[in-house]
Amino acid sequence: MANPFQKAVTRRKWLYFLLIIGLFTLSLFWRGKIQVPGSNEARAIYLNQLRRGGTDESAAPPPAPNAIAAAADWLYSRTIEQQAGVEALELRELEQGDPEITSTAMRLGTLGSRGFVITALWKAAIEKFKRNEWHEFEFLVRTVTRLQPNFTTPWIYQSWNLSYNVSVENDRLNDMYFYITRGIELLAEGERMNRKSPDMRYQIGFYYQNKFSVSDKVRTLSSLFQLSNIPHGERNPKLFRKEGQIDLAEFGEFAKKNPQLCRRLYDQLGYTRPEQIVQFLEDNQQVPSRFDKARNDRLLPPEQQFPTLPIKLPESGSAKALADRFRYTAMISPSETGDSFDAFLAAGSWYAYSMEPLPPTPADQLPAYSPKLEGVDRFRYRIPKSPMLVIFRQACPRVQTYRAERHTKEGWFDAQTRWYPDARADSEADRWFPAGSNVALETPSNSQIEWDRAYSLWSEHARLNGLRLSPEQIANLEREAQGVPDDYNLLNMDEEQLKLRGFTKRAADARMTLRTYYQQLPVTNIEWFLASSEAERDPIMIDARKKLLEAQQSDNAGNKIEAKRNYAEGISLYRQALRKYTSFHRNRQQKAEEDLYEIQAQLIRLLELDPEVDSLARKQGLAARAVIPGADEDTLRRTMAQTLASRVAGIMVTSLDPRVQSRAEELIRLAKTDPAIKEQYPAVEKGREALIESLVTEKEYKYLWEYVTEGAESDENRWVTKDIEKAVEQRLKGS
Amino acid sequence: MTGLSLFGILILDREPLALQHLPGLMQVWLQDAGGFAAVGLLAYLIYTLTNSSDTSESTKLRMPFSTFMLLMAVISLICYSAFLALFIAGIGREEVRMQSDVYGAEALAYVPPALSLKLQPLLLSAGGFFALLGLGQPFVRDLFKLRFRRIYAIAKLSVKEAIRNRLFVVFLIFMGIFLFPVKWFLPNNKPEDEIRLTLDVTAFASTLLLLVPAVIISAFRIPDDIKQQTIYTIVTKPVERFEIVLGRFLGFGTLITIALGLMTLIGWVYITFGTTFDPKAIEESQRARVPLRGKIDFKSKKDDYTGVNVGREFEYRKYIAGSPTTSERALWKFDSIPANLADSSRPDVPCEFTFDIFRLTKGEENRGVDINVRIVTWQCGQEPPPADVRDGVWRWSDPVKQAAYDDKRAEIDEKLRKKEVGGPNAPPSLAYAKPETEAWKLADQLAEEFGFFEVGSVEVYDYHPATISIPPGLFRNARNGTPPEGTPRVTVYVKCLSGGQMLGMAQGDLYLMEGEKSFSENYFKNSFGLFCRALILVGIAVTLSTYLSGVISLLATLFLYISAYFSDHLRDVAMGQSTGGGPFESLTRLLQAQQPTAQLDQTATKSTIDIFDRFYQWVFRRYENIVPNIDAFSWTNYLKEGFNINAEYLLVNAIILLGYLLPWALLSYYLIRNREVAA
After folding, report:
1. How far B84 CA sits from the closest chain A CA (Å)?
2. What is the model's pTM?
3. Does A179 touch chain B (CB under 8 A)?
């Protein structure tokens, strides 16, 4: 028999053992490893979702059958595993993005001195940058970013460094292009490791948009971008050379397949001969590409392709609509990209992809400041760091506008647009196609389609973000907000505090909405983008742009007569479009007016050089000198020529106005039956042309050169206000 | 006349140490090593003299003391006292040179030490010399007791132990990974950069994989022997203590030589016979140019013109303004011309250059800037235009000769136009003559006769080397006779023609091509630098391990070696050039939230801080003295940019290595002698 001490020891051991077992078992429940009896996992998950906010009512599970089950659900939902919601929190490295074995090995290799190593490498990278040792700089920044792959700022900072600061140090454009691509690739690599960052996706889109649209060397850079999208086998210069000569048949096929590229090289970069284009292909054979040269032009793995494109695109929500427009992923085949694929489509795809982690828009509601992820699933959505949310959201329509502008600039206006490479060929060596043929190149994309898409994207953006309130909506809001001051601190107070100050929450919200609306309108510049895309897609504007481009080309080619005629027709059509779209004309951006004045100045400049105008100006100058003997002859002649040219331009442009044309037709018709008309309009008898000239110089359409409508001779009624005239004149003098 | 390549850009903001720098280096070595020796000698003498009566015989043997040592110590002390007196009196002081002779390189350049005959440095050197003699006397005496077979046995043992450790084998296997094509790890690189990048990566990997095991083995071996008591099997035999150190050092050195030899050989086979490299990369990278470098100068019609600083952070280059009428020129002066440049069998002498373009306007799309290059000999002097003349044309000093040249040139051009000379494919003018043509021969004759050759316009791109051909006749003219004192034999004048652009140049940016050597030879020469660095590391580690434990030796060695990578910063702190002041001043600024560049008020606190900082600077200068100058042993830039590594530089490397290791050997001699290792 055991003595009492031995019994106590045994009891104590059993107690300890049972306590251990009990606490361990309890910890299994507490940790969520064993489900609480009577609970339901779906209901527990839903409970946690409710706590976080952003639940989908339709996906709610049936309620618990009784109070015990509800209590068990509650208990289970509070377990560690359920609260942590392993999937939802996505804290594990694998859920941040693609695993990368090299960077993991490198991190481990620093043996706990990562901070020190990164600091030293960063410093070394700055030194390399100062010394223009770019390839070493790139190697170092890649190492630095890989050592801290989930810190997004260095990825963005260093990719910017490569794409902007390094690339701009290179004179040779293929070198510049190379470093732009390296910056974009670096950021795309970072994005693959950080799948939840809207900022990184946005920045990639921004680099594409910015470097290939507004940079100084955009014409060459966008051509190199196109080369990156053409398989090596199709642009191999050897294909186009046969026995030391250019194989025109092969070259012609290339031109037909890549009309936008060829036209840009021809029109904007002066590569007019086939030999020059082939040389361009040869000089830039090694540009980064989407295709594997060594493997029969198969697509490279997504991470090695340039242009780098998203692996996937949003499949639901408002972002999906954008992804339907910008649908280009790394898997897309070359047949789907083609010659009309440009950096803007790549940018658009990244922008569409960047919208995926954003919280839903306030669709069809009123504008709002950047939300604080309240009422939405905070584990699913992110608010970008910059730019402000509403600007971030308009990236897709913005890039679409850029694309449309590119088409306009490059002369691809509508479905009827054709480009004749041999139209200006001076010799056989200049010809792209055999003599006698009149081959026209055409492309499926054009500015009319693109502007139409831009308009629809801007409209949708305005609708979804409450940026286009009707007058009634504004009046209602004003009514509701009456008496509430526009004080940001006050508007952010809670209901109780507002009540103490004598305001209702509803009224304060209405004031806040109006405040936001009036702030976001100028910030987003939405009115201009809507007005311009609406006007630019109109056939009248398309015709105006066509004529103006033709005029410019004729002018450059030395065909002044044709240039003058085309300018006059173009200006007339442009004015018609301005009359039709008053918000485009009288927009606070004033761009439409500035453009109009510049084009008119071009026409006047051409007319000043006209021999008739010149000789008349000389005569008038001499006459004037007789009155003012001390005046400088040349100055007088120039002043007279300007006045005369302006008058002639006025006649040329206003004569083409449909109102004048129809009035002339009407007067000719009436004159046949009504002699009073002949009396009132003696020019009727001299013919249609004379009548039109009299209408625009002496009669009712005299106002038309300067004013939009008759009667109101105010500055507001001018085609171009005096202030803008002065500003443009100053600018033109400066240039 | 011109060719574009991407290579040949060697930034020489540190002049490589050559034989001409040896006197200066020797003087500095005497001052630095001698200074430490003086302190050691003093401490040693005090110790031995104060413990002479009651110490055991064995201790006396370990701590020998001689009259010679005492005499040297006294002489050394006299020298240092004299120095101190002169220092206080401010007599015979040597100004520290912070700026290199290289014009463009300002604050960044490493300035090789020059021999100074001023009293203070001479006294310091003398003091150091006698201190070294005194401290080195027992060491030299004992050197004669060393026996090669014993050293060999220990060295052999070291190799065997290291091989048994398998550490090197593991590292060699890792090295294999770095020999795979770089494009596997870093895809989408520029094809022409491929070999350069491969050389970078293999150099980095070799350095890491050679030095890390070397230092680990060296730092742990002697302490392990002592810890495991295996050293008793040696020290109980009639072996000189220093033989253990020397044996270990030579053993590890042999091991490193084998490992490095293997790595270099594999690397060379891969680079030379690799088939995956882009042909452009092979064509561009596998070169070893032998350049002839001149001294840069900047001149214009203004007397005080020294080039323009455009505000780039990297102040290596100075700039000249571009304009067709500018008088600003960058000059490269060549004092001596080797005979092979004037060799008549040579078709041409290429002149390569790489400039930095600083744009004030956008310029033309996809175009560089145009420059004019004029090469003249001492027989064809040039003068800038007078200050009051608007045009920027440099004229010949001898107008009659210039007129004769113009006439002759016009005559040749006329004949070329008429195809009377120059053969059927004669160019319309000498300006278009290309080497190895009839017209080029005429250009050569003209250059030889007048010592003048000019390339009207060459397009250069930012950081892209370009080449022009110079007729060898010009160099024959240059070598003919003796130029007046101070006049270079050949001068190259560079002018920027493009308006609104600045052209940046440094001394190393233009050179004449003397010839080319073998890339393979260069590749092996490059390894010598790494070999020296490894020996330095082993030397330090073995020395420290004679007294410290393995881990502490390792850490101390690494600390010393790694701090060598921050030598610029160390130098700034040691010389008081650091932005924001010394550590105490920086701390004050931090606490007071002041800008590093803001001027501090001259208060009592500031004066106290300055005193502390000056003391700190002194400590740092001493520390800087013992940090190895590893930059002097780095030749990868030469290799990858396609420049021959001069054998002279390697010889100086070997001398510096010896100079650096000698004080460490002396230290290890005393440390191992005084280490209690036997029971």
Report:
1. 40
2. 0.82
3. no
